[in-house]
Amino acid sequence: MDRFATLFGIFAILLWSMSVALTRSLAEALGPFGAAASIYTVSGIMVWMVAGKPTLRGQSPAYLILCGLLFVFYMVAFSLAIGLANSRQQTLELGLVNYLWPSLTLLFAVPLLKIRARWWMWPGLVLAFVGVLWAISGGRGLSVHQLLENVHSNPLAYALAAGAAVSWALYSNLVRLFSKGKGVLPLFLLATGGVLWGLYFSFSSTRLHLDWPAVGELLLMGAITAISYQCWDLAMKKGNATLVAALSYFTPLSSIFIAGVWLNTLPGSSFWPGVGMVVAGSLLCWSASRK
């Protein structure tokens, strides 16, 4: 087992933790549609350069069509949810809604991959959902009134974040069923960029204006996408995959912290119990599914 490969996997987790912060920062500079379209176009090109030319030969239609649609929907929904947030504080809430996907992945794996999960997967799921509801309630406990008020203030963004969590959980399972070989990640990323450019030219009234800080963040986001997937792939093949997978469930914690620092909007102490519940719930689900 290669220790360096394991470290690369941990590095990938830290890189992915920057996605909420950079997506929001670029959305403020370029608008939600322009930022998202630019991010995935640059990411697709960089992943192509790093991973090499993808091949369609031998790939199943189910992988290319079904998994491709789920991948594109997730990326579009996630980036637009973050970009359409009314405030930076709401960005953190929407980021946490998105991080329901680890628990949902294991839930969907029971019927799709026929895994056997122990009974504490269900308390883990409940705990993760309660954590999200706690955070959206403004850290005031489970206040139904405050929860509904916050969601009602931006229903599209919350719906997109929830839809992103569901679609990525489905993708994570179905890609294991249908993918053959290396996959076609660069094509999925470029397809996402194409869809978002279509939305940009159809609905956006914001003119795309790239200044040097935005260019730097855009290149950083593309590099993060390309490098993180390569590091993750190496860790899964040669490193301690079990350890890396367990640590990946702390991504909500690291992501919210990095986003808070980057956006200069660290959440108050009342927000962190919600983050902690999402992490703990995800870890319970993970441990319930281990052989």
From TrEMBL:
Which superkingdom? Bacteria
Keyword match Methyltransferase: no
| InterPro entries xrefs | AA-Vitamin_Transporters (IPR050638), EamA_dom (IPR000620), EmrE-like (IPR037185)
Q: What NCBIfam families has UniProt attached to this entry?
A: PRK11689.1
Q: How does it sit in the membrane?
A: Multi-pass membrane protein
- State where the protein is found: Cell membrane
According to the record, the segments passing through the membrane are 33-51, 63-84, 120-136, 156-172, 184-203, 209-229, 241-263, 269-288
- Put simply, this protein is called Threonine/homoserine exporter RhtA
What Pfam families has UniProt attached to this entry?
EamA
User: Which keywords has UniProt assigned to this entry?
Assistant: Cell membrane, Membrane, Transmembrane, Transmembrane helix
